[in-house]
Amino acid sequence: MSAGSVRALPQQDPLYLPPEWTATPPAPDRDVALDLLRGLAMAILVVNHTALESPLRDATGALLSAAEVLVMVSGVVAGMVFGRRWLRHGGRATSLMLLRRARKLYVASVAVVALVGAATLVPWLASDALTVSPNVVPAVDAYAYDGTLRTLLAIVTLEAGPWQFTIMGFFVAVLALAPAVLWALDRGWWLPVVVASCAVYLLGRAWAVDVLPAQSERPFPLMVWQLLFVGGLVLGWHRDRVAAWVSGRRRAVVATVAALAVVLAAARLSGPSIWGGDAWAGFEAAHLDKGTLDVLRIGLMVALTAALYLALRRCAERAERLLGPVLLPLGRNSFYVFIMHVFVCLALASAVVALGGALSPAANAALQLGCLALLLVLVRRRVLFRWVPR
């Protein structure tokens, strides 16, 4: 098929694509370091979303946030994969592919939210571990709506849902908007794209307006968090050019990224002892809060993510051999893991209640490792792969 050619699509489904256009890219095109990084983010996310106090949670939550890493890496991967398809199959076909992907994620998200809502009706399930976020004060039940119709509306719009699943509304939206960004990049307008994304980010921080009805707007406002995804799209689209530029300045780039990551990480860890509890709490709320996504937090997360990526690239073969068996299945099936981890968290919370409540930090760590092991088994056995997006 020639570049840019589009064959006629069946009329019964406007989002239909021929099988050869929806196939997974061949393995050699994959960036193992990116897959490992996304797998690490998924492991951190699962540990944190169990909401159990343990050394694992303390270690994973000290510096790196899974949300920023997932959004940035997803943007880069989308720019690489769909950028190639845009050039190979044309904008219309690729746009339909992205819209079909967004639709599939939306349908799966509604199903998850509805199933968790049904789980709240089962007395012996600890559904409050999903419906009441430990990070929100005062506590709010995410399914507490007046009447059946209002609850159904909240489910369909993703306004309701488990707190571990909040960001999915954001991902559905940015995938649906990605064709517009790719269209601009195809015309060489990468600088206007970056400028526009920064402007929307600044407006989002200034206005604090909910663009989507989904609950993702509270912790992950679209106008603010799109900056990370769009930036990743631009990098992914121009990956070869960026790689060529970096290769000629490898030492300087690696040294700069490493130094920035070390300085920001040290400042983040030592801040409470240097500033004092109250002063640091105010600074952290103003500049390191996930919802507002201040420039300082972006700098910290980007520097740490870039440093980890460069380290994984530097030791790619060893990292793949040592970390790959655990992180690659999680990273290469991230949406599947993200969806299934909601039900794993529900099962874990119900088991903890059945065991009598709070356990020791060591026991909690063992349970968290067990959750990761269970998710790995589900991936390797391809459980529900036919229905759950990957």
How does the SSE layout of this entry go?
Blueprint: H1 19-22, H2 32-49, H3 55-61, H4 66-89, H5 91-119, H6 128-131, H7 148-156, H8 168-186, H9 190-207, H10 222-237, H11 239-247, H12 250-275, H13 277-287, H14 295-314, H15 316-322, H16 324-332, H17 334-354, H18 361-380
Protein model, in words:
The chain is an all-alpha fold. It is built from 18 helices and no strands. It is globular, with a radius of gyration of 21 Å.
In short:
By secondary structure, the chain is mostly helical.
The low-confidence runs, each spanning 5 or more residues with pLDDT under 50, are: 1-28
Strand content: under 5%
Overall geometric form: globular
Give the biggest beta sheet: none
Q: What separation lies between the terminal Cα atoms?
A: 27 Å
What share of the residues lie within helices?
55-70%
The total strand number stands at 0
Please count the helical segments.
18
H and E order: HHHHHHHHHHHHHHHHHH
User: Average pLDDT across residues?
Assistant: 88
How does the helix and strand content classify structurally?
A: mainly alpha
Query: Compute the gyration radius: what is it?
Result: 21 Å
List keywords for this structure.
390 residues, mainly alpha, 18 helices, 69% helix, disordered N terminus
